[in-house]
Amino acid sequence: MILYRPVGLAELRLIAEAGYRAFPPRLSHQPIFYPVLTEEYARKIARDWNTADETSGFAGWVTRFEVEDDFARRYPVQIAGGRSHEELWVPAEELEEFNRHLVGTIEITEVYCGPKFQGDIDPATRLPLGWLRSPPTKGS
């Protein structure tokens, strides 16, 4: 199953540090990990919410990844607000196992920067300039 996840700067850094092969553990006030089913929905969150959020670094990245179909089916699709807002709700304590069922790597597909974002984005990697790791190429 192909899924998407909008992330802010801190979460993106942790994904990069994990070699683009795992999402970081949830914080104590985050009981669920919620990947979304469409790139459009992830784009809306990254563009409209993350870019205005200080804790996201005033920037939002859309990530795309694959999870083994059989494993993903254990999480029923949830509707969060509107019909086009489909998510899977993975309990925080199951995220480590969820990560073990990722197929390949987590890819960055888009980046959005708000007016308060500080820094520059490398157009080739979609990462902030100065980061040492670049995202893997498809299939690596």
**Number of strand segments:** 7
Question: How does the helix and strand content classify structurally?
Answer: alpha+beta
- Give unreliable regions as ranges: none
What's the main sheet like?
Answer: 3 strands, antiparallel
The helix fraction, in percent, is: 10-25%
What is the end-to-end distance? 18 Å
What is the string of SSEs from the N terminus onward? EHEHEHEEEHE
Radius of gyration: 14 Å
Protein name: ADP-ribosylation/crystallin J1
Organism: Sorangium cellulosum (strain So ce56)
The gist of it:
It comes from Sorangium cellulosum (strain So ce56). With 140 residues, this protein is an alpha+beta fold. It has helices at residues 9-17, 39-48, 69-72, 95-100; strands spanning 2-7, 32-33, 59-67, 77-79, 86-88, 90-91, 102-113.
Describe the protein's architecture and organization.
21% of the residues lie in helices and 26% in strands. The protein has 140 residues and is of the alpha+beta class. It has one domain (2-113). Strands 1-3-7 form a 3-stranded antiparallel beta sheet. Strands 2-6 form a two-stranded antiparallel ribbon. A two-stranded antiparallel ribbon has the order 4-5. Strand 4 (77-79) and strand 5 form a beta hairpin. This is ADP-ribosylation/crystallin J1. It comes from Sorangium cellulosum (strain So ce56) (Polyangium cellulosum (strain So ce56)).
